[in-house]
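Let us work through a complete example step by step.
Step 1: write down the sequence.
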Amino acid sequence: MTRKPGKRSLDFFDLQFARQIAQREFALNPFEQAIIPFLSGEVLDLGCGLGNLAQAAARNGCTVTALDASRSAIEHLARCASQERLRIEAREADLRSIAIRGQFDCVVAIGLLMFLPPPAARAALTRIQSLVRPSGLAAVNVLVEGTTYLDMFDPAGYCLFRERQLPEAFAAWAQEYLAIETFPAPGDTIKRFCTVVARRPSGRLPKRQRASRGK
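Step 2: predict the structure and record it as tokens.
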């Protein structure tokens, strides 16, 4: 039987989420901590995981649509949102193809795009940009080249971005936050991340992005 693309990554995170729930590890990671002060209004959280950022944003007054491929993570988030009466819509979704209507004040994709094959990752990044309202924010975090910890990736396809690829993609936007960081990982390996928070111009999308939407 052919294995469903991305299954290794999904299994990896399902195990991690189960451990975090059991041990009540719900603190924001460093990337979430960095971007949470920028979020306001209607927020789309792509690859929300257990929803730690979604809950923090909702507690700060945001209305959040939170999507993830992990059913257990979404069920956990939905329970938490119901208990606290937070304005969060939590939905299970296959994020290999981002088919979402409308636009948002903030679109967040923390640790998502690197789990797609390179062409799909680039297309998803363009789609994320199109989901941001004029003058709204995109907050995107990816693993970059130099990363040697690869246990969470499915051999069927993943993407390590070039170090400057993400800021270059937002060159026409006002970049409000940029960090390139290295963290130790198991087995004497490392993870290298790039995180960008950028504000979309108030006018029309750049020509390249309009073309990608068939305009």
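Step 3: interpret the result. The CA atoms of residues 56 and 106 lie 14 Å apart.
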